Amino acid sequence: MQISEKFIFHIWDAQHLKTNLKTATNKDVQILYVGRWNNSSGPDFKDVVIKIENQILRGDVEIHQKVYDWQLHKHHEDPNFNNVVLHVVYDNSSDIKYTINEAGDLIEILEIQYFLDQSISKLLEKYEGISLSVKGDFCEYFAGKTSDITSKLLEKNGIERLHKKMRRFSSEMIFDDLDQIAYQGILEALGYNKNKFQMLQLSREITFDFIKKSKLKGMTKEQLLSIFIFSSSLSDHIPNNFPNQLKYKLISLYTEQHFFLNKIDIDWKLFRIRPVNHPVNRIVQIIDFLWEASDSSIFNKFLTLFSFSDNQIDMKEFYFRLNKLFAPTDDNLPEHYRIGKTRLDTIGINIIIPLVLLYAGKMNYKNLTEVTKNIYKNYRALPKNHIESHMHRFMQQSQIKVVRKKAIYQQGLLNLYYDFCKDHNCQICKAKLDADLAKM
Questions:
Q1: Local confidence band at 370 (pLDDT 50, 70, 90 cut-offs)
Q2: Quick one: how far is CA 13 from the chain centroid?
Q3: How far apart are CA 290 and CA 297, in angstroms?
Q4: What percent of the chain is predicted at pLDDT more than 70?
Q5: Which of 114, 139, 152, 203 is the most exposed place for a label (fewest CB within 10 A)?
Q6: Are strands 106-111 and 84-91 parallel, antiparallel or unpaired?
Q7: Is a pLDDT exceeding 70 seen at residue 156?
Q8: Are 225 and 284 in contact (CB under 8 A)?
Q9: Average pLDDT of the residues of the chain
């Protein structure tokens, strides 16, 4: 059976796989985190976490239809693929047991056609030979659905997206504690689209544990700010709206400090970036929060946002607490040194809520679980992004109004887009729709 590579991406991303996975060398494989879909050059999924036998590996995954595609695409000559820890193929009709990268290392192969879960196997059997291309602006998922049905479908998808984020954080707990994971998530969110990975890289080099320990040894907040900026080559690209007096002071502080002397090689994406979105300004925005949290715990500060009785949730109070949590200590700072409402909501939806819900579940804190779920279900809508605008063309005006009511509906729309619409897997999406409607 011929299956598109894009659909194999979906199988991997949604983990439509059984649990008894085996490599071509008959080793047990456990997928702890599927990774982040890579939209640029290089391997298909980044930051994957897998366990082969008793060894936990973190790296990249490359996906192909056939095992020979690795050579066909010249990956064996490309050092950008040297961090691949698993080569996932649909069909390995050969006696090849390993893939070899540019450095000469052996990479385990996972052939998935015999490990598909029951739901995806039935879909492939049912829709074999049917085109997966989109047809104009018609979408059967939304066509003829009432506002009530639309809201229920999008809420279900919004919860699915939340669980995917929780699985990501759960896998990261193998390597890091909750504070470091929260810290990485915040900095990644402040990187926006252009510098998300770069800010994540910065948080892995200058860890939250380093901040806590160095503060106990006498490091000041301004010294920490100088370390962020001058150790990562951001000093060569300081925006024009950054005060010169503070710039020269930070140069002096960085030169004199002894807490962090490494140079971090980060490829910042600064071309045509607005000054307000510059990484230097984003670091200034978060420095007060990090400094105060380093006295105790970032995660404990998160928990203070959720101190409600399950039946007495006050969303205005939650937003007030969130804003206050990240507000700078100096009220006289210019507006661009404050994290805006949209970015705070992004951090709340993508970092704080999934982390707290994951923690509540692991600790069996039922009230915290219910409070967190209800806050997620009632969270205000975020500004429309380009994906939401794209999806609106498949929807009636009454359905668009549903999406604009709550963040969970927007998250549901994003879940549909990344799972199906992005690669025009319309027939698979239709089958999921039928299954979801049957449960209502």
A1: very high
A2: 12
A3: 9
A4: 95
A5: 114
A6: parallel
A7: yes
A8: yes
A9: 90
Task: Please give the single-letter amino acid code of residue 402.
Answer: V
Helix (H) or strand (E) holding 129, with range, is none
Token code pair at residue 361: 């579940």
Check pLDDT > 60 for residue 133.
Answer: no
At residue 121 the predicted structure's pLDDT band, cuts being 50, 70 and 90, is low
Predicted confidence (pLDDT) per residue in 135-150, tens digit: 456 888 999 999 999 9
Which residue, chain included where needed, has tokens 């984020």? 165
Residue with tokens 């007495």: 312
Place of tokens 């936990």: 56
> In Å, how far are 54, 59, 242, 251 from 283, measured between CA atoms?
39, 27, 12, 16
346 near 189, Cβ under 8 Å? yes
Domain boundaries of the chain, sorted by first residue:
5-126, 132-440
Q: Please, which residues have CB within 8 angstroms of residue 139's CB and are 6 or more apart in sequence?
A: 394, 395, 426
Provide long-range contacts, Cβ within 8 A and 24+ apart, for 35-43: 35/60, 35/61, 37/9, 37/13, 37/418, 41/80, 42/80, 42/81, 43/80, 43/81, 43/83, 43/84
Q: Over 60: is that where the pLDDT of 131 sits?
A: no
Phi first, then psi, for residue 8 (nearest 5°) are -65, -35
